[in-house]
Structure of Acyl-CoA dehydrogenase:
Amino acid sequence: MERSSKAGEIMDALNAFMDEHIYPNEALYEQQLAQGADRFNVPPIMEELKARAREAGLWNLFLPHSEYGAGLTNAEYAPLAEVMGRVQFASEVFNCSAPDTGNMEVLDRYGTPEQKARWLQPLLDGKIRSSFCMTEPEVASSDATNITTSIDRDGDHYVINGRKWWITNAYHPNTKIYIVMGKTNPDAPRHRQQSQILVEPDTPGISLIRPLTAFGFYDEPKGQAEIVFDNVRVPASNLILGEGRGFEISQGRLGPGRIHHCMRIIGQCERMLEQTCRRLLSRTAFGEVLADQSLWQDRIANARTDINMLRQLVEHTAHLMDTVGNKQARSEISQIKVAAVRVGRSVADLAVQAHGAAGLCNDFGLGYAFTRMNMIRMGDGPEEVHNRTIARLELKKYSDPGASSAK
Amino acid sequence: MERSSKAGEIMDALNAFMDEHIYPNEALYEQQLAQGADRFNVPPIMEELKARAREAGLWNLFLPHSEYGAGLTNAEYAPLAEVMGRVQFASEVFNCSAPDTGNMEVLDRYGTPEQKARWLQPLLDGKIRSSFCMTEPEVASSDATNITTSIDRDGDHYVINGRKWWITNAYHPNTKIYIVMGKTNPDAPRHRQQSQILVEPDTPGISLIRPLTAFGFYDEPKGQAEIVFDNVRVPASNLILGEGRGFEISQGRLGPGRIHHCMRIIGQCERMLEQTCRRLLSRTAFGEVLADQSLWQDRIANARTDINMLRQLVEHTAHLMDTVGNKQARSEISQIKVAAVRVGRSVADLAVQAHGAAGLCNDFGLGYAFTRMNMIRMGDGPEEVHNRTIARLELKKYSDPGASSAK
Amino acid sequence: MERSSKAGEIMDALNAFMDEHIYPNEALYEQQLAQGADRFNVPPIMEELKARAREAGLWNLFLPHSEYGAGLTNAEYAPLAEVMGRVQFASEVFNCSAPDTGNMEVLDRYGTPEQKARWLQPLLDGKIRSSFCMTEPEVASSDATNITTSIDRDGDHYVINGRKWWITNAYHPNTKIYIVMGKTNPDAPRHRQQSQILVEPDTPGISLIRPLTAFGFYDEPKGQAEIVFDNVRVPASNLILGEGRGFEISQGRLGPGRIHHCMRIIGQCERMLEQTCRRLLSRTAFGEVLADQSLWQDRIANARTDINMLRQLVEHTAHLMDTVGNKQARSEISQIKVAAVRVGRSVADLAVQAHGAAGLCNDFGLGYAFTRMNMIRMGDGPEEVHNRTIARLELKKYSDPGASSAK
Amino acid sequence: MERSSKAGEIMDALNAFMDEHIYPNEALYEQQLAQGADRFNVPPIMEELKARAREAGLWNLFLPHSEYGAGLTNAEYAPLAEVMGRVQFASEVFNCSAPDTGNMEVLDRYGTPEQKARWLQPLLDGKIRSSFCMTEPEVASSDATNITTSIDRDGDHYVINGRKWWITNAYHPNTKIYIVMGKTNPDAPRHRQQSQILVEPDTPGISLIRPLTAFGFYDEPKGQAEIVFDNVRVPASNLILGEGRGFEISQGRLGPGRIHHCMRIIGQCERMLEQTCRRLLSRTAFGEVLADQSLWQDRIANARTDINMLRQLVEHTAHLMDTVGNKQARSEISQIKVAAVRVGRSVADLAVQAHGAAGLCNDFGLGYAFTRMNMIRMGDGPEEVHNRTIARLELKKYSDPGASSAK
């Protein structure tokens, strides 16, 4: 997979920016975040860095085939996402952070001119942030057909009722728009019941119940909210694409977002493996430097091999998406989710263990990194769902009437 | 291993107490803890429950062979620890929580009459709490000979200098005494360099630098502190047992504490497995109740089997300690640490996954339970150290000059 | 679980016998077996050892609660089975080898006086051997209700038609009786359709199709046969217990046989761990004795811990069977199958790897030991079936109408 | 990695040949092999197929950059090796089977014109076969510096003394040449002590001690031999490249052979996964087709993901070898060995388990496939050695004086 010269230039610029502006400001970012008046605040350094990134032309790099984006293919963007993934907050600096990326793609692809003007443009400018409201506490949301939030037509409006949770960004001070998934057509066929609709956070009837913690973390500054929608009325023109097309929209956003997530995980794994090596080189137990002990070497080697295998599969999947399309790459798009979480959790575990008690707290960022890997496991479909998809596609090769005979 | 009738009666009383007083107050305890003025506070319900437990004769059950304790063997106490382990805060209610238990054992066994009067008695009465200061941030403390804190004799005093961290209880409002491990005799043979000394928290020169988080948890109300000892002077009479006997003291406290920890882990695992079953029975995905799916059944079965194997090994180890002694049971005492953490982490992982996103937060106590299992992994020696011990004892059977020939 | 003095004496005698007669003859046994005129032959040393064992009173030790046996409980017999398990052919020396043991138990418990005189007595005398014919190639026999062999009444006879495979002992020269499982009542409720019937190998219509190999082993001298029953007529009096009672009979034989199998696996694991330690102490790579390398120490420690946990669980299960009965111990009886195979395969894997290429061949008995562990995995129900049973029993605690509420 | 049109045409021809000639003759090959007069014989169908393959231009495809070969890069040859790997004997049909391939590469690169005329040409013509004699029973050969066979200069000859084992092809009737590794310069620096020398099997002093079995298999028709070299004299001109250059030669052959092995493993995994799916679709237990059960689906999905990750990594490694060279790809060349064995063993395990008892025997080729995966684990360096290499290369990034500071 040869990289175009444009992609190569962006990569060079990105690496230079990371070296010059991101790594040196990691500590400052954490410090400003911790010292903010509110739990959920925007560290001033973030806005400074965003301005610099935009100036450097490192902005909205994720958006393919669009008048707004860098025009990179998935395969070209993937290595950039890996680099950004090395620092937890870096993607946002380049306006490339989830769920804004997915929301922008949806608006870019399916939004009306009015919707684009009102919400896509400020998102592209990094002026506002956004949420995607899907998961519900009362049902196994891993089966998306279980979603129960209702979106009922009432004249020129839709009325929304339901409870959502784990809504990323909902506590972020800049969040100005939600995309909400719910049922407009409960009597339609299972995959035509759901719709997606745009909702502004200050609409009456919306209550942020509480910030959720993941293993104790509030995931600042974006936060994870539980939200109740109680007779929330929005104009009918806020509906995206049309009634019953919620699944269709989700399918479209799924693939690229998956690549981004997985490549960021790889970046984070590389960072943790580096930390692990440095730590093991610096510590001695029972008269032997830890890095010289075969047990630790075995673990380092497995981590290196796992990360490399994962990267190859993710980049191959990106290539498939670019060439044969998301639908043909369905199995791979599920595979990389499962594999990335497996590798990510395993490398995080190694890094924590290599750092001893220091790995549990956040002195090396590992407490959060470990937690993050476990959060990602749940997000975007648990492995049980993805493995079901992969297996069914595999079995179909042999169970279809036209399947070739044994070989 | 037949249980004595006394142990049986205590078990009945304990179960009744759990049913009547502990389970019904779990939510209240969490609520009071969250609402305390300070992060580290004692929920009022705790003191109420302690009074009731003492009244019910369920007090200091852990202390064997002593005028103060219930006179139970390790094998008899073990199942009680399991029951207490089902609720995070329950051990404290019965004055059976670490590190107080270990500290009380040390004082009971090695303390001078003055040391006992001043610190053992209030500990036995549940009036004060205590810390054990061993782990240091600057060295691989898993090899205890690495410990660098100095305890230097200066006339009638010892002067302590060093930095400790992950000091449980240090932020607990009731903590009035530390046992500190450090080097009095840096030039002695490796296992005769260390001593243990009693230090009161308000001694000049002690600074609590910061509360540490494990993943994102502050582990309230006890807390995990980083502490600096800067020329801290304590009377020479605070030394326990004598100079250079720190390792000897540690060996003594190790065995029983290990049993307690492991049995509590088992109790917690049982609770989590119960939660897992209930959850899976209540959720449906892709048209099938999760509890009916073979993948989840496989996981439940493995958890059940693992827990049962672990319990048998821990109870067997307690029995060995009671009959042939800690030294002969050295390998088993290490085995149960490794096995308990392995099973505990695996069951916590299952419970989290079964609860979906609800498993990450603390609505079912699982976010903390998962975190706790990872903390325990580090505490009390990581598996690398224990496995080294087990393997060396195993290999010694065949490498000693007198080892029998191949069979 | 205190051992009775009788059991202790037998253990001493058994260990002495192993030292004096079994270990010193291992090589001879293998040599005679390899040099036999036929693939399936009885090495002369086997008959010599059997005579000696019987003389020493080490005979039919497995048979509980019977006029014929040693009168040991399951818990008392278990450690003896472990010792026998250390050498592949040792159980047969003491007339304690499967499937004869299970077949003798069935005849002892359910046989008519005539059946006992004709087949039980020579089995008890070690004069003949026997097979149990259950598994079929055409169906998933792990679900025993799938079994399709028909056993049809025809006057004073039953006529058997079907195909069985993996029939242990069928090629053994001394095998004189089969117990065959099949359907007498295909229209009865699912667990009342099957019966067990006694069939002599020279009955017309029986064809031994071929000896099966496990990986590449023929499992000499007993062999694993594929057998066709083509209109095989046996007297109606050969039926055991009655029509439709096949499952009931199976249940009875299941528990004790499981204990035997699992304890033999433990004996074999101990032997392999010993071999592993000796090997690692004797080999050097990259300038360090393998036994001193932390990676190998980690593996040794895990093997030691796993074996110990398994032994405790199996002995506990034997104790449960002796005290509360097989039905109450159903979950544990399944647990030990799954756990024993898991540990057995893992220790075999370790031993093979520690021996390098020598582990693949049979110079240290490891090629067969590894194979054996994989055979046992299939036999007696695969883990999928046992885990299903364990999980369903676990879930039942919370799904029954009378289940206690959440705690 | 775009495939050249030449490579694409060869792939099409190879697939067509497999469909027309290989798959339809699998049973015949096994039957002829089993019916041969000797254990080690060449099934007649093999020579027929070889003639056809050569005729079809599908011959010596593995040999890169050479007047003799197809001129394919490693990346181009890799997918062909995968296809051949689907059938155990297929590589030989195309004169692409180990260890002949590695031996031919060595002779092609380092052989004298005389050596080439005498041994390379008949090997290229598929007229003879060959062995590579390295592993020794007495030392941990995984550390190649341990090799003790001596190769001593004596006038115009070298005299070889030593014992080798696991010598593939040594029992093959067509094997006419060995390459033997041993020490010519025991006092030189560690990596300059060894040499490689050509030895004809009928040279006096060579004894084939016995055929070795792997899990009971004799690995016919090639066989695995134990060989003693007792004062074996060969002309000095048989030495390859020069004294002390044995390691250098090994390095050269290592990379491409690794790619071939790993791709064949992938081919075999694909075949086993296909068999697994077909089997699970055809069997029912407890009222549900196995393929519909979530536990089996989870396993299928993991196998699919693992195979895909492995393929990407191996193809990427081939690409690295083609572009930056073997030395720069050292870590990856080790990674794919470890990863391929891990995946291969896991998929073989799945296939065996899915087939129940039929997986243990060879009715579906799985008994041997499983065994083969375990043999490959040992061959070509065990994972302990490769992981050591990988880890040391990884750690070197941070321990070298010039290593960049933490990031």
Observations:
- DSSP finds 13 helices and nine strands in chain D.
- The CA atoms of residues 321 and 329 of chain D lie 6 Å apart.
- The two ends of chain D are 32 Å apart (CA to CA).
